[in-house]
Amino acid sequence: MNYNEQIKPNTEFMIYHPSELNNGDIERLNHLYLPIVGSEAIMTFLYFNHFKTDNETLSINLHHTLLDGLSTTLSKLQLSIERLEAVGLVKTYQSTKEHDDLLIYALQLPMSAAEFFNDTILSFYLHRKVGKGAYKVLLERFTYPKLPSNVVEISKTFKEVFDTTDVESVSMTSPNLRSQRVSQGVNIDPDDFDFDVLFTHLKGTKIDRSFFDKKSRLLIAQLSLLFKLNAYDMKLILMDSTSTQFGIDARKLKQNARKYYQRENKNRLPNVSGQSKEETSDNYFDKLEMINPLDRIATVRQHAPHDEDLKIITELLTRFSFTHGAINVLLEYVYQQLDGELPYSYVIKIASNWHEAGVTNAQDALKEIQSFKEKQEKFKTSKTYSKKDRPGEVRPAWLDQQTDDNNTEGSQASVDADEEFDALLNYFKKGE
C-alpha cells in the first residue's frame, strides 16, 4: 500500500481488535518485537489496542486523531504501521467501495515465545539487533522446563464428569464473538521466490516437486530473503538438506543456508535492515546503518579495500555486537586519527573498549567519541604537558594500545586531546 498517496490527516480509519492483550503479550512485545520494530512502532500498536470503539458498531475516526494522540507526524506514523505490518502485528485493509476513503487496521496478537524463536526471520533479526549475549538471555527468559518424562496423564474426560444423555443436537447461530487473532509472523509471500526456475534447476535430481508443501515454500522464501539466495543457490542447499525418504529437512535447510552464505561471503553475516524513504534521506544515523562497511571503506580510500581491511571488518562483524553504522564510525574515526592507517590491533582494542561500554550502533559510537573528548577537556590545564604526562587525565584503555606505527605522526594524532568532535562528525557526514 502506498501510504504517501492514501493516508492524509482526514483519511478515515477503523481499528479492528477482537483479541485482548494480556501481560504476557506485552512482555513479548517489549522484549522480542521492540528491538526489531522500534519503540515508536510498539507505542503505535499499544495505542491502537487501547483505542476505544463501540463493540456493536465499530467507530470510524480520522487519522489526525492518531497524530494528536501519539504526538507524531504522518511520515512517522506511516513508518510505524509499515513495520507492524512487516512483522505481522497489523493487517491493513482498504475499502473497495468507490469514493470510500477508509482503512481498517486489524490487530494481531504477538506470537508465542516458542513460535517467535522458531520463526526463521524474526529470531535471526532479533539476534542481529541485540547480539549473541542478550539473545541468549532472552531465550532463557522465555524458556520453561518440560514435564518429567516418567509421568502419564490421568485427567478425566468431559463425558466422565458430566451427564450428556439428555443433550440434544441444537442448531443455532452465534454472534461474531471476540477471538484470538495471533500474528502469523513476518509478512512474506512465498510467490516472491521464483519456484519455477528452482524446479528447472532440480530436474534430474532426487528432489521431487511433491516435497514442496506450503510450509517448505514459505521457509525457502524466508531464507532467500534473509541470505539473498537465488534459485541456483537454493538448489545447492536443498541437495544437502533433502532425502528421498523424508523430504526437505527444515532444520538442515536453515543450517545449510547459513553455512552457504558464510562460505560465499567470507563469514560476514547478512544485515537485514529496514527500507523507507524517511530513513534513507532524512536520518543521518540510519544512513550509516544502511551502508555496508566494505563499501564505505572503499569510498573513503577511493579504491578497493586492502586484505587487512577485509580481515578487520570480518572480525568486527563476527566478534562484536556492532551494527554496520557503528563499524563505519569506528573505521572512519581511526582512519582520520591515523592519517589513513587502520592497524588491526589498534582497531580491535578500540572495538573491545566500545563493546564493554555498551556501544552497538552509530549513534552510540559517536556519543562515545564525544564523551572521550569531553573528559579530555575537563582535565585540561592551562599548562602545556606532553601527551604522555598530562596529570589527572582519564583515558580509555584503547588509547594506550601501542601499534606497529606508534612512532609515526599518525599514531601521535590518535591521542590528540584537542580534536574537535564537531569536525569529526562533519567529516563522517561528508563521506569523503
Automatic annotation (TrEMBL):
Chain positions covered by the region annotation Disordered: 378-419
Ranges of Basic and acidic residues composition bias in the record: 378-393
Record keywords: ATP-binding, Helicase, Hydrolase, Nucleotide-binding
Residue ranges of domain Replicative helicase loading/DNA remodeling protein DnaB N-terminal winged helix in the record: 7-258
One annotated GO molecular function: helicase activity
Top-level taxon of origin: Bacteria
Pfam family membership, one: DnaB_2
UniProt domain DnaB/C C-terminal: residue ranges: 308-368
UniProt-listed InterPro entries: DnaB/C_C, DnaD-like_sf, WHD_DnaB
Nucleotide-binding listed as a keyword: yes
Keyword set includes Nucleotide-binding: yes
Protein family membership: Belongs to the DnaB/DnaD family.
Protein name, as recorded: Replicative DNA helicase loader DnaB
Organism name: Aliicoccus persicus
